[in-house]
């Protein structure tokens, strides 16, 4: 009788369990995601008052922005793999919520004086290279 009686133990000649590899990241860092996806996609009127929303080119200087943008990047990476409803879920549950906070007067960019016209990419300034290393290379 085996010491492991009662446990579901594979016989020695059983095939090795299938190990699924985690899908590779599409974007290697939150900065790459912001630079290549968020900045060109969300073309908003940026400024104070009226229908303008808030944003700042140096988003990476604001801890709340880094946390929220990292959250929506990671959610995007996971949900992009769902061809049926992944992007809709990502927009509704992640992007709309977190970007709504970031773009608002009460968010971390609320005091920003930066402006841009509707239809223009969001302002962007590259962070120091060591701040967001490419996670695909770690």
UniProtKB/TrEMBL annotation:
It comes from the Bacteria. InterPro entries: DUF4913. Residues 112-138 are annotated as: Disordered. This is DUF4913 domain-containing protein.
């Amino acid at each position: 009788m085996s010491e492991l009686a009662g446990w579901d133990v594979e016989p020695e000649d059983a095939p090795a369990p299938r190990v699924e590899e985690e899908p590779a990241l599409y974007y290697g860092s939150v900065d790459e995601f912001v630079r290549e996806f968020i900045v060109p996609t969300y073309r908003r009127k940026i400024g104070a008052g009226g229908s303008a929303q808030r944003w700042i080119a140096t988003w990476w200087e604001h801890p709340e922005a880094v946390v929220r943008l990292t959250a929506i990047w990671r959610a995007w990476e996971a949900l992009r793999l769902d061809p049926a409803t992944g992007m809709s879920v990502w927009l509704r549950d992640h992007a709309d919520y977190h970007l709504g906070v970031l773009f608002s007067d009460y968010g971390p960019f609320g005091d920003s004086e930066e402006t841009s016209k509707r239809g223009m990419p969001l302002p962007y300034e590259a962070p120091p290279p060591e701040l967001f290393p490419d996670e695909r290379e770690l």
